[in-house]
Amino acid sequence: MPDLDPLARDPRVALAEERTLLAWIRTGLALMGFGFVVARFGVFLRELSATVPAFATRSTGLSVWIGAVLVALGVLVNLAAAGQHVWRLRRLASGRLFEPGTVFGVTVSIVLAAIGIAMTAYLLVLSG
Known about the structure:
Layout: H1 11-51, H2 61-93, H3 103-127
Helix pairs in contact: 1-2, 2-3
C-alpha cells in the first residue's frame, strides 16, 4: 500500500480541485456556446442568400458541421472533467495525491487548433 500523504487531507487541495473542475466547465460551456454561434451563422448565411441575391454564398453547410463538432467537444470536455474530478477526489479521500498530468489539456488544445485551421480554410474558400 502506498504511503499516505498528509497533504491529501488538506482542504486547500480539494478546493483547488474544485476550481480546476469549474475552469474546465467554463471551457466546455464556451465551446458549446461558440459551436452554437458557428452553426447558426451558417444557417443565417443560407437564409440571407435566399432572400438577398447579392449575398449569395456557394456553401454554408460546413459551418453547421464545425459548430456541431464544437458543441460535441464541449460536452466531451465537461464529461471528462467530471470524471477526472471524481477520480481525483477519491484519490484524495484515500489519502493519496495524484501526479498532475497535461494530457487532457494538450489534447483539447490540439483538437481546437485543428478545428481552427479547418474554420480558417473554410472562410478563405468561402470568401474567394
